[in-house]
Each structure stands twice: as structure tokens, then as C-alpha cells.
Amino acid sequence: MRTNRAGTHRAGMRTKWALVLLGATAVALVPWMVLLVRTLPASAEVRNWQVAWVGLDVLMAAGCAATAALGLRGSPHARLTASATASVAVLDAWFDITTAQPGAPLVQALACAVAEAALACACVFLALSKGHAVRE
């Protein structure tokens, strides 16, 4: 079996440029974040609050279900859904904590964040696993 060196080189170059673009984006986001810190109001009235919060939980549940289904079938795609689900869990925890009122609501948000962090850790473990199939 012959390998196509030109094709491999092109794929490597595309990957390199995608990584350079990601690095440049990270740098470009720094002044944007400074601008946001200086200009955004400390509080805001939000419409569809319940939809936003329930939507995060729907994404997290769907990610868990997809990861479980794909993983139990031995699909390597479970690593992708696990990665996405970890991101959603961290995002959910962040917004739980940063939007909670002081006192009991903050304590509840912190407790939820512990559970979400555990879920994120499990998902990262699955995403970084060698993809060993669980199917029998």
C-alpha cells in the first residue's frame, strides 16, 4: 500500500494553518475581553431566562445520552460527544455560579458545580481514552 505524501503534506499544512488561526484568535480576543469588561453593564434584564437555563441542561443530557449510546456501541465518535459534553458541563457550572445570588442560591450553585465538574472530568477521561470499545 502506497501513501500519498503530497496529500499528507497538504493535510498537515491545513492543520498547521488552522492551529495558527486558533492562536491568532486567542490573541485577538484579549483586547475584546478588555473592552467587554469596561463597557458591559453590571446587571441586565434577561428575557427567556428559563429557556436559556433549561437549554443548557438539554444539551448536557443529550450529550450524556449520545456519548453513552455511541460508547456502548464501540463508536470512536463517543470521544467527540464526550468532549462537547464536558464543555457544556463547565459552561453550565460557570453560569450557575456567576449568576447566583449570595446565600443559599450560591451554595446550591456551588453544589451543582461540583456535580457538573465530576461529569466534565468523566467526559474528559472518555474523550482522551484510547477508544477501547465497551461492546461485547
- Unreliable runs: none
Q: Could you tell me the number of beta strands?
A: 0
What is the element string, with H for helices and E for strands? HHHH
Distance between the termini: 32 Å
Secondary-structure class: mainly alpha
**Overall residue-averaged pLDDT value:** 91
Percent of residues in β-strands: under 5%
Number of helices: 4
Name the helicity range: over 70%
What profile does the largest beta sheet have?
none
Shape: flat
**Computed Rg:** 20 Å
Keywords: Membrane, Transmembrane, Transmembrane helix
Transmembrane segments: 52-71, 78-95, 107-128
Short summary of the structure?
This protein is mainly α and 136 residues long. The chain has helices at residues 5-39, 49-72, 78-99, 104-128.
Overview of this protein structure:
There is one protein chain. The chain is built from four helices and no strands. By secondary structure, it is mainly alpha-helical.
Features:
mainly alpha, 0% strand, flat
Layout of strands and helices, then pairs:
Layout: H1 5-39, H2 49-72, H3 78-99, H4 104-128
Helix pairs in contact: 2-3, 3-4
Keywords: Membrane, Transmembrane, Transmembrane helix
Transmembrane segments: 52-71, 78-95, 107-128
